Structures are given as C-alpha cells and as structure tokens.
C-alpha cells in the first residue's frame, strides 16, 4: 500500500500489494474500481503498465483517460469500438463539407445576380403624360423621369422627398437608391 | 494443424490448430498486423474478444482492433481518441463556416428584397398626384411590369 493508504483500484483487483511507486496508483484511485476493471478487461494490466512506463510522467494521465475511453467504446461496441465513432464522425464531416460547398455556390450565384441587376439597364418606359399639376409644371427633371430616363431617377427622388408632404412611401434615403442605378 | 502457421501462432511460437481463432484474420503474409494487436491488447484478450462474437462479425472486429492498435502505436498518449478529437474540431469549424455563409445568404436575400421593395415604392405615377399636392398611391400597382 502506498504510504499506508488503501490500495489502488488496480492492486485491489489484482489482489496484490500496492507498492509506494505503484504505476497505477495515481490514475486508478480506489474509489473508482470500474475504471481499472474495464481497462484491464480490454487491454490487460500488463499491457497498460508497459504503455505507461514508456511515457513521460506528465503524459500518463492523458494516456490513461484515452485508454479508458477506448475500453468503454470497445465494451459498448465489441465489433467496432472507437472505429465506429471515427467512421460516424468522418461521415458527418463529409456531409457538412458538402452542405458548405452548396451554400458557397449559392452565395456566389446570389452575388452574381445582384451584380447583374446593378448593371442592367432597363428598357425605356413610356408613361402617359401627366395631367397639368401646378407643383410639377416647372420641374424639368421630373419630366425626364416621365420620359423614362432612369439616369435622372436620383433627381426625381430628391424632388419628391423635398416636395411631398406625406412621403411615407417614397425612398427617404436617395443614396441607397442611387446604388441600384450606378 | 495448418501447414502454414498463421501470423499469431508464428509470433507466439506455437502449433497452429485447424480451429485457431486467429488464422482467418491474421494471415502469415502480414506479421505486423498481429504484432501491433498483440502489443496493445495481448493475444489472450484478442482471442477472448473474437470468441465472444458471432463468426460473421469477427473479421470486422479484427480489422478495428488492428486499426486501434495502429493508432495507439503511432500516438501512445491519445491513440484513436486523438483522431476523434480532431474530427470533432473539424465538425465544429465547418459548422461555424456554414452558419456564417447561411447568415450571409439570409442577409443578401433580405437586402435584395428590400431593394426590390424600395424600387417598387419609388415608381410613383405622376398622374396620381392630386392638385392639392398630396400624393395618392392607390394606383401604384398600375405601373407597367417593365419595372419588375
């Protein structure tokens, strides 16, 4: 027994004296006998001891944790063990990468469509002439719009914003509209 | 007894009976396969694992034991668990990228819809302006479809 304390879980299971320098004692405390039991069942105490002896002290705790993980996986799935989990995760990675590729293609399409819309020059639009309205009579820029010159839409928007008393439906920020036509 | 001993019986320096549990899965032409498995699990444990399984599962079990033993020899600290950790990280990274791209798609869709709506709203037919200067947008939808 190490220092007079109770033997570690491995020495209890193996029914032997737990030496002061027992290689298992730091990693298999007596309050968790199942941990060593499962590792012993899958790997064997002798093999675990050899593996730990080949590792530096600061890496042994991680090694024990991974061995316990693998042993548990093998107990749950005696045919595939951890390899089943690896296979499942690799499949997930593949599916996600496919989804990512599709999403990237979609965004590329959308960006190209938007660029096409921005550069597209709509055909000239012939609208009926307006009835005589005093607020528009002296505005040549709005007449340009009526004739379908979309390059002057900016001016039209500025005018309507400036002159409309209830312009809730009119673009309040002409700078945003301008980006469509430039 | 097999005329040619399997890799397990050769390594263990013993007679290879016709009922040898290892011989179908550890052929003599691949000695390293059994060496790796024996180093990590031990012949006795491998034999127990294979015997506890139905015969049609033993080949897959032998393959997975060999793969895990190989990973453990290559990475004595983490073994297969190192690969699992890397895969989890990859999944997380790709999920983050995917979420980012999907957010961009949603933003572009919203922006495109807003621009369409704003463009439609600016197409006010001047004929609808009443003489008192107050716009009447009720005939907005009469605007020709060229604007769509």
Automatic annotation (TrEMBL), chain A:
<dbReference type="Pfam" id="PF03195">
    <property type="entry name" value="LOB"/>
</dbReference>
<dbReference type="InterPro" id="IPR004883">
    <property type="entry name" value="LOB"/>
</dbReference>
<protein>
    <recommendedName>
        <fullName>LOB domain-containing protein</fullName>
    </recommendedName>
</protein>
<comment type="similarity">
    <text>Belongs to the LOB domain-containing protein family.</text>
</comment>
<feature type="domain" description="LOB">
    <location>
        <begin position="6"/>
        <end position="107"/>
    </location>
</feature>
TrEMBL record, chain B:
<dbReference type="Pfam" id="PF03195">
    <property type="entry name" value="LOB"/>
</dbReference>
<protein>
    <recommendedName>
        <fullName>LOB domain-containing protein</fullName>
    </recommendedName>
</protein>
<comment type="similarity">
    <text>Belongs to the LOB domain-containing protein family.</text>
</comment>
<feature type="domain" description="LOB">
    <location>
        <begin position="4"/>
        <end position="105"/>
    </location>
</feature>
<dbReference type="InterPro" id="IPR004883">
    <property type="entry name" value="LOB"/>
</dbReference>
């Amino acid at each position: 027994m190490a220092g007079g304390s109770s033997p570690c879980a491995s020495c209890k299971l193996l029914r032997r004296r737990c030496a002061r320098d027992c290689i298992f004692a730091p990693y298999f405390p007596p309050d968790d006998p199942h941990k060593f039991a499962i590792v012993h069942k899958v790997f064997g105490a002798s093999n675990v001891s050899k593996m730990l002896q080949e590792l530096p002290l600061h890496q042994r705790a991680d090694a024990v944790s991974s061995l316990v993980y693998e042993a548990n996986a093998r107990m749950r799935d005696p045919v595939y063990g951890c390899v089943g989990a690896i296979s499942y995760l690799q499949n997930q990675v593949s599916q996600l990468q496919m989804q990512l590729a599709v999403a990237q293609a979609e965004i590329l399409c959308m960006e190209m469509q938007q660029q096409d819309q921005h550069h597209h020059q709509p055909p000239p639009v012939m609208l009926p002439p307006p009835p005589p309205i005093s607020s528009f009579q002296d505005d040549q820029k709005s007449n340009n719009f009526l004739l379908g010159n979309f390059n002057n839409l900016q001016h039209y928007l500025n005018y309507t914003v400036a002159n409309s008393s209830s312009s809730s439906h009119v673009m309040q920020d002409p700078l945003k509209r301008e980006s469509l036509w430039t | 007894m097999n005329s040619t001993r399997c890799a397990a019986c050769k390594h263990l320096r013993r007679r290879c009976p016709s009922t040898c549990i290892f011989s179908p899965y550890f052929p003599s032409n691949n000695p390293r396969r059994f060496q790796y498995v024996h180093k990590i699990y031990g012949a006795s444990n491998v034999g127990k694992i294979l015997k506890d399984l139905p015969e049609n599962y033993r080949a897959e079990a032998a393959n997975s034991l060999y793969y895990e033993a190989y990973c453990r020899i290559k990475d004595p600290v983490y073994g297969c668990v190192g690969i699992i950790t890397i895969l989890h990280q990859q999944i997380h990274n790709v999920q983050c990228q995917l979420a980012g791209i999907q957010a961009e798609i949603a933003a572009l869709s919203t922006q495109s819809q807003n621009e369409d709506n704003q463009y439609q709203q600016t197409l006010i037919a001047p004929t609808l302006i009443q003489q008192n200067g107050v716009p009447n947008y009720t005939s907005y939808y009469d605007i020709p479809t060229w604007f769509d």
